[in-house]
Design goal:
This protein is an alpha+beta fold. The chain contains twelve helices and 20 strands. InterPro entries: AAA+_ATPase, P-loop_NTPase, Spore_III_AA_AAA+_ATPase.
Length: 401
Amino acid sequence: MGSTSLLPADLSTCLKNLSPTPLRRCHFSPQKLSFSLQMRTHQHIAAGIAICGASSSSDHSGSFVQDDLHSLLQVLPSDLHDSLLNEVKRDELLEVILDLGWFPEARYLGQDGGECIRNTEVTVEELEHAQQAVGEFGRDNRAGIEGTLHRISAIRSRKGGIVGLTCRVGRAVYGHIDMVYDLLQYGRSILFVGRPGVGKTTVMREIARVLSDEFRKRVAIVDTSNEIGGDGNIPHAAIGRARRMQVPVPSMQHRVMVEAVENHMLEVIVVDEIGTEAEALACRSIAERGIMLIGTAHGQLLENIIQNPILSDLIGGIHTVTLGDTEARFRNCQKTVLERKAPPTFDFLIEMRDRHYWITHQTDKSVDLLLRGKNPQVEVRKRDAKFNVVIEKSKPYDKCI
């Protein structure tokens, strides 16, 4: 049986007729990649609007945003749909909260608390209508809307009935990659940490697109809740040519990560919300095979990862060491100290303090200095008044706001 016999007839014939050509290594310059990225950004936006009829906008940073908000609003009661559709701040809408017996709320980016959007309470019938519009929820009580990046999370009663919904707006942001574009060219693993809602998943999505489309890497996204690639079997266009592997149960994420490497000859794996010991061990196993990892973890600062016994393996792991008398005197410290026990899984760790204010650590150096009670030097990445990216090198960590 020929090697192309399993392919469709047209592809099999095409591959047989190809004349062999020598492989050629491609070299990309930052200037060419930057221009190519800009062109592809506009192409993706145009394609998204043409195919999905999605609403899009651009912010002052030059980023393009595609949200397809209309699809999410269809889940809501009709009066809320009309109200939010005409809302002046609709581009900043973060999520809509529907809790049984309470007034519905809308939460916006950069705004504390929520705004009441109706003076009548949410009813059982409205929650049932929303559930029917969304469809089946997964074991993690999350669901999506096919062809979009929106996420609906359910709160259930003790008997299993839905008593609350969090309807999160999913946005495909194009052009935000310039905050970290230079680091991608090193081919090193990067871990993002930050508070919920700061944009970690959004950045991961665009990194997957740029690495697959512009850098021509073999990229796969291990998508636990279909939050990166969107709901449905066909992933959202925002991830470009990156492949997406869905996870049937959240507890199986680590298995799918290893399967992705063993079965699909990948160069890059993108994984969101690393939170268990098994996932941390899977990340280390993948990194030791020379695979580039792009991931996020629960925590706001590097210190949170150091102090987390489950996730500390991502930054090399921490163990207790007893020093000799001479070494203790040389270091001017106690004889029992904490030290990093292995090379870090992720070469860089980025604290996303805000959407436009990031702190970049060279993981091994920062961890070693922090464990010794010293102040590491970091890079601060931010946007200036004109929303251009500014990188401040060798800034003391304790001076970062």
